Amino acid sequence: MRDTDYSTNRLGSSLTAFLIGGLVGGTLALLYAPQSGRKTREFLMNESQETADRVMQSIRDAQENVLATIEDAQLRMEAMNRETRDRLERLREIARSTVDEQKDLMQRRSQEVKDTIRE
């Protein structure tokens, strides 16, 4: 899970840096625009649309990463469950054989004691 935490933190930091960069870039473009008001507005509209598109793509990418991480975690849990079930079954088999062996041993000893008493 540490790799997942690192990826999530890195993704959040990248998205934050991207958004801040977009805001700073837009502000600088507005302050230093040598164009008319209409052209500047068109430029800002285009830039804001492109920025919005990039943000939406980043969000979609983040969603895909989260879904992939969840799916991976589910697969790992299923594998762990299978492994745990297999181990429990082996332990049951060992317990059964141990109980059977002890039962046989007790029956033999009981029979030996009976035979010794009869003699």
Describe what you observe in this structure.
With 119 residues, the protein is an all-alpha fold. The chain has one domain (2-118). Helix content is 94%, strand content 0%. It has helices at residues 2-31, 37-118. Helix 1 (2-31) runs antiparallel to helix 2 (37-118). The chain starts with a helix and ends with a helix.
Task: Write the topology of this structure.
Blueprint: H1 2-31, H2 37-118
Q: What is the end-to-end distance? A: 70 Å
How many individual β-strands? 0
Helix content: over 70%
Question: What is the 3D form?
Answer: rod-shaped
Mean pLDDT: 81
The description of the largest β-sheet is: none
Which strand-content bin applies to the residues? under 5%
**Would you list the SSEs in sequence order as H and E?**
HH
Structural class assignment? mainly alpha
Flag low-confidence runs: none
Short account of what is shown:
With 119 residues, the protein is mainly alpha-helical.
List its salient traits.
mainly alpha, 2 helices, 0% strand
